[in-house]
Amino acid sequence: MIFISSSCVKKNKIKDSVKELAINGFNNIELSGGTNYYENFEVDLLDLKKEYNLKYRCHNYFPPPKAPFVLNLASLNDDTFNVSFEHVQKVLKLSSNLGASQFGFHAGFFIDIKLNEIGKKLTKDNLFNKNQSIHRFCDAFKLLQLEANEISLYIENNVFSSSNSEAYDGENPFMMTNFTDYQKLKEKINFNLLLDVAHLKVSSKTLGLDWESEFKNMINESNYIHVSNNDGFHDLNDQLTKKSKLFNLIKASNTKDKSFTLEVYDEMDKIKSSYDALNEAIYD
Question: Are 265 and 8 a contacting pair, CB within 8 Å?
Answer without folding.
Answer: yes
